[in-house]
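Holo model, zinc ion. Inputs:
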Amino acid sequence: MKLAQGISTIGFRKWYERRLLTGHAHLALVLLAVLGLMMALEAANRYATQTEKWLDYGVALACALGGGWALRRYLFLLVHTESIANQADCPACKTYGRLELVAADTRQDAVRVSCRQCRHEWNIEY
Ligand SMILES: [Zn+2]
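Output:
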């Protein structure tokens, strides 16, 4: 879910929480991929036929590629979400995360938000 859509529909704090949960789901996928990779490599050494070995190497390759993708996605979600969260403090009253969407500018990758506490407006760039 995009930032502007998230702020307007579920609020910033819920959007932030869901982004972190999504990121950590990708981390769990990385751990499963590493486990699958180790199991496939172990299985490749135990079975003697060439077909079984190549099948196990294929599974190991799929786990490595899937794990790499999941790790890349996890790191992107974490860094991107934290970068946005660091801009969620109201510059005027220092209230964190109580935002309303004023305008979304997709050309400049920024949203204009206002504080629910004091109505101060500022941009969040992503
Ligand atoms: Zn404020």
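DSSP finds three helices and three strands in the chain. Residues 90, 92-93, 95, 115, 117-118, 120 surround zinc ion (CB under 6 Å).
Archived with the compound record.
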